[in-house]
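Sequence only, no structure available. Ideas?
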Amino acid sequence: MLQASEIPQLTNFYKRLSEMMIKNGDFVLHAGELVNTQVGSWFKYQREEAKSFKEAHWLRDESVRRYTTLRKDVSDRKEKLWKKPVKNIHEW
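Reply:
I predicted one. Tokens follow.
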């Protein structure tokens, strides 16, 4: 009976599979280094821009929140005026 290591096709298959795995690992390492060197500064720029965008977005949200609070307050005061009988026309 032949051992698995004695069959040349099987030995060649595992040898090629091993080479492919090593080459694939080398490719991943090189691709990671390439991305790091070529796009690293761009990522840093995007990170800094994201901080300023978050700040601007927070300011916008605060403005919207203040506006809606004031608008609700004005609506509540108008509603109270409508419910009260008119004694003084200058309150309007």
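The two ends are 107 Å apart (CA to CA).
Hope that gets you unstuck.
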